[in-house]
Amino acid sequence: MSKIEFSVQVRLVSDLTASKAYYEKVLGCEVNDFWAVRDEFALGFKLLQANKPEDVKPNTIGKDQPVAWDTYAYVDTHSDLDQLYEELKARGARFLQEPILTEADWGAWKEFTIADPDNYSIGFGSGKKE
């Protein structure tokens, strides 16, 4: 079977210039004509200008979700997640969900969620305390 190297999400955006600036300045992505990529495609997007504003449709909240996610990315440890939170906060990210820790019999999960200019949400989480 052939190996897939990475994937990207395609996002219709209301203002391509504003979205490119956000993904570069806030998320720390490398941005070109329409690609926004961070950490060698660990986080990757293809940003496309929507024909009309109503074409931009972020996900709605699913059953038992604390917030709606359009993207969910994983980091290695809770410490790494805390560092990423501080980085994004310093860069001006808008948070939909501040870091929360959920303890269960299977372990501890920590996550937070930010929103881009079109209200697409990007969740970040880690399941490893250290």
TrEMBL record:
Which intervals hold domain VOC? 5-127
Q: Which SUPFAM superfamilies match?
A: Glyoxalase/Bleomycin resistance protein/Dihydroxybiphenyl dioxygenase
Q: A Pfam family matched by this chain, by name?
A: Glyoxalase
Tell me where the signal peptide lies.
none
Name the InterPro entries on file: Glyas_Bleomycin-R_OHBP_Dase, Glyas_Fos-R_dOase_dom, VOC_core
Q: Which domain of life is it from?
A: Bacteria
Q: What is this protein called?
A: VOC family protein
